[in-house]
Amino acid sequence: MKDKTGVWLRRILGATLLLAVWHVLSLCFPPLVVPPLSQVAESLGAIVAAPTFLATVGTTIARLLIGLAIGVIVGGAFGLLFGLCPKVEDVGMPLIQVLQSVPPVCWVVLALVWFGFNGKPCIFIVATATIPTMAINLVHGARNVDPKLLEMARLYRFSRTKTLRHITLPSIRPYFNSAFEIVLGSAWKLAVMGEVLTTNSGIGGAITTARLNIDPAAIIAWAFLLVVGCFLTERLLRAMLVRKEVPSC
């Protein structure tokens, strides 16, 4: 209990120091460079109170979830296949390496040519960024299954399906969870970046509007909401994972 209290006190101290530095900078620079905290708070209140707020956030979340679903399913399938079949990995891993190496902004430009200015490029870049992370982590997971468990499965003559279900999949779950935590955090940033570059809807569209109106306070307010959204989704994910790991009575 004392450890948790200490952690929260240190976090509060860090946030307080950050706000103090921000306040000092706002006194040294004009509002167009560093807007005062009061101005950002006012913009934040106006954004949340706007009737279009939920629709704007919902649009971004929908694109994020679709891109994540595609990336997790495709990347998970590739990772499991490559981990269980090294010969197939030799053929398919170059594709994963290409997806991992090409910067997201390049995929955005290509997606604009393929899909147009309609929000689909946001889904595309989230998926392309998710696939290699999931695939590479699950390859390592499948390769690190306890050999003793596999030997036991052979002794008891488990079928491939039974071995996959009761030994391989439970063994790679930590790798999957770790990969999903990584891609969840980056998905928020990539989805909004895609919206800024390819559409005028969603949170990215709202940030673009604020930029065109030369309103840095609104941009910072939206950035704060993104931090909150990313924090809440990560907390929710961790709570779900911990709940699944707790054995039932």
Folded structure, characterized:
This protein has 249 residues and is an all-alpha fold. It has ten helices and no strands.
Main features:
single chain, 249 residues, mainly alpha
Q: How far apart lie the N and C ends?
A: 26 Å
Query: How much helix is in the residues?
Result: over 70%
**Gyration radius, to the nearest Å?**
22 Å
Unreliable stretches (pLDDT < 50, length at least 5) are none
Mean pLDDT: 86
State the order of secondary-structure elements, H for helix, E for strand. HHHHHHHHHH
Class derived from helix and strand content: mainly alpha
Number of helices: 10
The count of β-strands is 0
Please state the overall shape, judged from the principal axes of the Cα atoms: globular
Proportion in β-strands:
under 5%
What topology emerges from the helices and strands here?
Layout: H1 2-28, H2 37-49, H3 53-84, H4 86-101, H5 104-115, H6 120-143, H7 147-155, H8 160-198, H9 202-212, H10 216-245
The gist of it:
With 249 residues, the chain is an all-alpha fold. It contains ten helices and no strands.
